[in-house]
């Protein structure tokens, strides 16, 4: 297939490199900054530097930009997309953008299939993209009414380039679960490192500090958009976290050894039952 990847940051760049290392598909790279696209071409991550006007050559288009930027790009350039081509996004939220992209697919005649690669790093940009980033990761698909053949094509491509599993979901379930598994840990990490103790952690920290603080190294512009577009599920998870933290806080404040041990044991039990 001819696959156009739009946005050659860590996600898009890694898609390109994974496609080239695992398949014989032809990769067209489109990026706002020409120098980055040129670097990707020179490194063999893409076969061609594309343009919006050339999107009619693509069988599959992968949007790797901020969520609303994906919608804006298609709204502006959807007229160039071949009818029947598959367009997917890689956004960490779905309810805010899937209805817009679905409507644009009906207007322009392409097939929209939402998706979200569950992989990343703390750093951003093409320079840290990696052809092995998706090895064994989960690839979430939100079909949004797309036909089975298109969903199957995208699923097969994901497995072909190294993803370990494909998970089907709908936008509501996706955003509710991502609020817990991805967004809440980022909020927690940022709140954690705002402690006045943080600048003095060296010499006193080890694995626990690294594990909790790692994702505080955050792209503030992107994650602000993700948090606010998914505010209702995220606020529900924050309320649950507040409640659980409150119970631990009061048990410690009261010196309630038994109550504290019960709360800690409950957390231990959950992890044990999950086999983690």
**Inertia-based shape:** elongated
Order of helices and strands: EHEHEEHEHEEEHEHHHHH
Helical stretch count? 10
> Major sheet: order of its strands?
3-2-1-4-5-6
Question: Can you characterise this structure?
Answer:
The protein is α/β, with parallel strands linked by helices and 276 residues long. It has a 6-stranded parallel sheet with strand order 3-2-1-4-5-6. Strands 7-8-9 form a 3-stranded mixed sheet, with helices on one face. Helix 6 crosses helix 9 and helix 9 crosses helix 10. The longest helix has 24 residues. The mean pLDDT is 97.
How are the SSEs placed, and which strands pair?
Layout: E1 2-6, H1 10-22, E2 26-30, H2 34-42, E3 48-49, E4 60-63, H3 67-77, E5 86-89, H4 98-108, E6 111-112, E7 114-117, E8 138-142, H5 148-160, E9 165-168, H6 171-193, H7 207-213, H8 220-229, H9 231-254, H10 257-274
Parallel strand pairs: 1-2, 1-4, 2-3, 4-5, 5-6, 8-9
Antiparallel strand pairs: 7-8
